[in-house]
Design brief:
single chain; 484 residues; mainly alpha; two-stranded antiparallel ribbon; 24 helices; 70% helix; 1% strand; globular
């Protein structure tokens, strides 16, 4: 795609940017080679369930090759400042560090709750209630949609997936469909909240930084109905493929281990801390998440110091032993060690790869063509001029990643109405649901439900999800017509 766009505008080859420093390599052989490396790496990611090659390996290698080629080109131009490429890659590393640490804290809490039998207890409760797989499909979807605006789509997806894995057991079909439903619901729910998704955070932060940005805090909630449509349309179709049976296994009561409820409370406090850090202190949410990790660390210290008291005189009582937990003291760092490192390293590769393509000039070129040429070519009215480009942003975010795509749009800052800014916020937030690798939630669940939620398993339902994507755009244009 990038190579095709570069051929449309060949005059930009190896020319310096408007600032006179950064090279435009979109028609240079290095640019073409970088795109080829990226495409091959992504093809290997998509084929993971057939090749059994971990998805992090090809993208990490691709990231190194792309940035090595970029650095070599800048090294051969001594007239340019030598630190340009270094600064760019450091910026990408910072972006990755924020995402990785945020995800690491969320995974640690989920692993801690899993070790304390939280999800097993929830599974036994749901089974005892007699909920069928179809009812559980709706329950987890509704929870994902309404929790993600507060807790962010990534954390919500991980939490709901843990519930699905506990309840679904060996029923791989239910696990696959429920995970797809969770990804779509979490991304849709995050699209109408300023802190529900990284892209909405970026749009809102732009408003805070400039005091006259595109979308203020309350404007996001105009996307509630379109976001709801985006989830409900595919969910209403997929539910008929969910087995209409009850989960296997008895509903025998499972008791949570000591401290489980307090860890749940600390997780909620951590989410509140992350939201508060961003909402009131204008700090990155990851700072709040890491502060919340300290809550768990201190509580782990408390469990360690008091474990001998709880086990004293109770070792002969099997039921009490199960409630108290392992006699070995609770260790939060063991939970960190269980984090899905393949997923975390995959994010590194994607962020660095896409960052390299952006530094080469492809993202800016793509935005320029979409926002300045498409409207004129289609002879659209001024209010609808950016509509094709904003719809394409969602499709592009499913293939590349919504973060750098939205960054490119915000950097360009096209002159658009509030309705168009809300449209691009919606499409960038929900477009990634069309592919499992199109959003952070999808990638995280591929690691968490390895072998059961896969790229091709998700791909089979892409047409249905795309139908919801189209329906949400129509709903936005109808409900928020006055903002165009």
């Amino acid at each position: 795609m990038f190579a095709l766009l570069s051929l449309i505008a060949p005059g930009l080859a190896l020319a310096s940017s408007a600032g006179g420093e950064r090279l435009d390599l979109t028609t240079h052989w290095v640019g073409f080679a970088a795109v080829a490396v990226f495409v091959v790496a992504y093809a290997l990611v998509m084929a993971e369930e057939f090749t059994h090659l971990r998805k992090s390996k090809p993208v990490i290698l691709a990231a190194g090759i792309i940035w090595a080629m970029v650095a070599w080109v800048y090294h051969t131009h001594p007239e340019l400042p030598p630190y340009l490429a270094e600064q760019a890659v450091r910026h990408n590393l910072l972006e990755y560090a924020e995402l990785m640490l945020f995800l690491l804290v969320a995974m640690t809490y989920i692993n801690a709750m899993d070790e304390r039998n939280v999800f097993e207890a929830l599974r036994s409760w749901l089974v005892a209630k007699g909920f069928s797989f179809r009812q559980l499909f709706w329950i987890t979807g509704v929870l994902a949609f309404f929790i993600s605006p507060v807790a962010d789509n990534l954390t919500t997806a991980l939490l709901m997936c843990a519930v699905v894995l506990a309840v679904g057991g060996d029923n791989s079909k239910f696990v696959l469909l429920a995970c797809i439903n969770i990804v779509v619901a979490a991304n849709a729910g995050g699209a109408f909240s300023p802190f529900g998704d990284i892209t909405t955070l970026m749009v809102w932060q732009k408003n805070i930084a400039t005091a006259q940005g595109p979308v203020d805090f309350w404007a996001f909630f105009a996307l509630f109905v379109p976001s709801l449509v985006n989830w409900l349309v595919p969910a209403a179709i997929m539910v008929f493929a969910v087995p209409n049976i009850n989960p296997s296994g008895g509903g025998d009561s499972v008791r949570m281990k000591r401290g489980a409820k307090r860890i749940i409370a600390l997780f909620l406090c951590t989410i509140a801390t992350a939201v508060s850090f961003h909402n009131f202190l204008h700090m990155p949410p990851v700072i709040g998440m890491l502060t919340g990790l300290a809550y768990l660390q201190f509580f782990g210290f408390y469990l360690k110091k008091t474990s001998h008291k709880d086990h004293a005189g109770k070792t002969e009582d099997a039921e009490a032993e199960g409630q108290m937990g392992d006699p070995v003291a609770f260790d939060v760092f063991r939970k960190i060690a269980r984090a899905e490192w393949d997923t975390l390293l995959f994010f590194y590769g994607v962020v660095l790869c896409v960052g390299g393509l952006g530094f080469i000039g492809y993202l800016a070129l793509t935005s320029q063509i979409m926002y300045t040429e498409w409207g004129a070519m289609l002879n659209l009215s001024a209010s609808m001029n950016a509509t094709p480009a904003n719809i394409a942003v969602g499709v592009l975010s499913a293939i590349v990643d919504n973060i750098p795509v939205m960054f490119a749009v915000l950097t360009m800052m096209p002159d658009m109405s509030m309705g168009q800014w809300l449209l691009v916020t919606l499409t960038a937030g929900v477009g990634g649901s069309m592919l499992s690798i199109g959003s952070a939630a999808g990638v995280a669940l591929m690691g968490q439900a390895r072998g059961r939620y896969t790229f091709f398993g998700h791909l089979k339902w892409t047409p249905v999800i795309a139908l919801g994507y189209a329906a949400s755009i129509v709903a936005h244009m109808f409900v928020n017509a006055g903002s165009f």
